[in-house]
Design a protein that fits this description.
Blueprint (H helix, E strand, L loop, with lengths): L12 E5 L2 H4 L45 H15 L3 E5 L2 H4 L10 H16 L3 E7 L5 H7 L6 H16 L6 E5 L10 H4 L9 H26 L4 E7 L3 E3 L4 H23 L4 H9 L10 H7 L4 E5 L4 E3 L8 E4 L2 E4 L15 H15 L3 E5 L17 H19 L5 E4 L22 E3 L11 E3 L1 H11 L6
Parallel strand pairs: 1-2, 1-12, 2-3, 3-4, 4-5, 5-7, 6-8, 7-11, 11-12
Antiparallel strand pairs: 9-10, 13-14
Helix pairs in contact: 2-4, 6-8, 8-11, 12-13
GO cellular component, one term: cytosol
Organism: Clostridium tertium
Pfam family, one: Glyco_hydro_1
């Protein structure tokens, strides 16, 4: 029997994750166009972000500067290398390559930027893990075509993929097509640029747009494998594990139905066809998905190599929510779980739920998993001596990594790697805040946009460095 039976795989990819629109800034530099993220104003836990029609003078758009990673990436990647990162998950800003989205020729300045960024990673032996579209797309495609409701976006997306696959085929192996693609059902504008009027059938618009993204993803997978057979191309979903409130069969059925709405997205990506439970749902709710000739074959031929996913928290679902205390997190809503503690933003902390989720996903699909988001958003305090003692973050990550190890070594789950979210502080996607921090590296930036942007190591920096050095043995 192998001595490695209780250890993480030797080639396990430890790293960290960010998104271009939440860290780069430089929103209109070197030919970059306006993205859907660029029209999202600052908000808070009590004030929703506003998604304006174009840029309105006087509004606070936090992505416009973010943490200025665009100009500071060399120093930041050096810090990632000091922690020992094996990989770095980031995204390409579509509008740096195609400013309006429907151009025939790419913006060379944008392509050069990512050449330099990936080269900087590779210099330190850090594998780039790239999301092709992470909660942003050209705003021009929203204005001109109504975003992903229009089938034309499939071709615009594939043109974009063709350019970046060919440009970076020797630099990037791991790709993901759409970030948290299932969030289209929770917040249609953030992942798909959809503005839906009250007169429209909301679900009809959402699921038709999702179909266009499925086709785009499947065609991208096939194209990528043709360009470089060594590419590993995955989907990316938010995994919101839902527990039934009780063993009442109505609660169990409600939780099952809730999960099916999310499994639908990974089912199509991995299995290559629409599951019967969603076909029946569409039929019973008068939703008619327009398939073009050949779409079924496209889905079948474009299945993914791995499942990328985010895991932050779990939910409780009931057949009857009347009079129940509800809680929210990561754009999802459920009943408060009395057995769990919660973050400052109300997200319920559930390390064992992480192990359960890993088992659920792997046993359902039997392809490798890649946890590309996991972490704790918290308000950090700088002490008088300049230190930032984020023991709460260390505790959160320690407990989740311990459960991930059990899933791999005891349960037999196959995993590629683990990239905690916001390895450096960045703009929160859900609230637009800086105060809600996830990073191992503190960035001096405030919610109102003030700050020096100075970088500072937190206590978790050295802790995570030891985790990586010991391949998960020293937690």
């Amino acid at each position: 029997m192998s001595n490695n039976i209780d250890k993480f795989p030797d080639n396990f990819l430890w790293g960290g994750a960010v998104a271009a629109n939440q860290c780069e800034g430089a929103w209109n530099v070197n030919g970059k166009g306006v993205s859907t993220a660029d029209v999202a104003t600052a908000g808070s836990v009590n004030t929703p972000r506003e998604y304006t029609e174009g840029i309105i003078e006087g509004k606070n758009y936090p992505s416009h500067e973010a943490i200025d990673f665009y100009h500071r990436y060399k120093d930041d990647i050096k810090l990632f290398a000091e922690m020992g990162f094996k990989c770095f998950r980031t995204s390409i800003a579509w509008t740096r390559i195609f400013p309006n989205g429907d151009e025939s020729e790419p913006n060379e300045e944008g392509l050069k930027y990512y050449d330099n960024l990936f080269d900087e990673c590779l210099k330190y032996g850090i594998e780039p893990v790239v999301t092709i579209s992470h909660y942003e797309m050209p705003y021009g495609l929203v204005e001109k075509y109504g975003a992903w409701r229009d089938r034309k976006l499939v071709d615009f997306y594939l043109n974009y993929c063709n350019v970046i696959f060919n440009r970076y085929k020797e630099k990037v192996t791991y790709w993901m097509t759409f970030n948290e693609i299932n969030v289209i059902t929770l917040h249609p504008f953030i992942p798909a640029g959809l503005r839906i009027s009250k007169e429209e059938n909301k679900e009809q618009v959402i699921y038709q747009a999702a179909h266009h993204q499925f086709i785009a993803s499947a065609k991208a997978v096939k194209l990528g494998h043709e360009i470089n057979p060594n590419f590993k191309i995955g989907c990316m979903v938010v995994y919101p594990l839902a527990y039934p409130e009780t063993c009442n069969p109505d609660d169990v059925l409600a939780a099952n139905n809730y999960m099916n709405k999310h499994y639908f997205f990974s089912d199509v990506h991995v299995k290559g066809h629409y599951p019967n439970y969603m076909k029946k749902y569409f039929e019973r709710n008068n939703i008619n998905i327009e398939f073009q000739d050949g779409d079924e074959e496209v889905l079948k031929l474009g299945t993914v190599d791995f499942i990328g996913f985010s895991y932050y928290m779990t939910l409780v679902v009931s057949g009857n929510t009347k009079g129940k205390t509800l809680t929210e997190g990561n754009m999802t809503k459920g009943i408060k779980n009395p057995y769990l503690k919660a973050s400052d933003w109300g997200w319920q902390v559930d390390p064992v739920g992480f192990r359960i989720s890993l088992n659920n996903l792997y046993n359902r699909y039997e392809i490798p998993l890649f946890c590309v988001e996991n972490g704790l958003g918290a308000a950090d305090t700088i002490e008088d001596d300049g230190s930032i003692n984020d023991d709460y973050r260390i505790e959160y990550l320690r407990e989740h990594i311990a459960e991930m190890k059990k899933a791999i070594t005891i349960d037999g789950v196959e995993m590629i790697g683990y990239t905690p979210w916001g390895c450096i502080d960045l703009i929160s996607a859900s609230t637009g805040e800086m105060k809600k921090r996830y990073g191992f590296i503190y960035v001096d930036k405030n919610n109102d946009g003030t700050g020096t942007l100075e970088r500072r190591k937190k206590k978790s920096f050295d802790w995570y460095k030891e985790v990586i050095k010991s391949n998960g043995e020293n937690l």
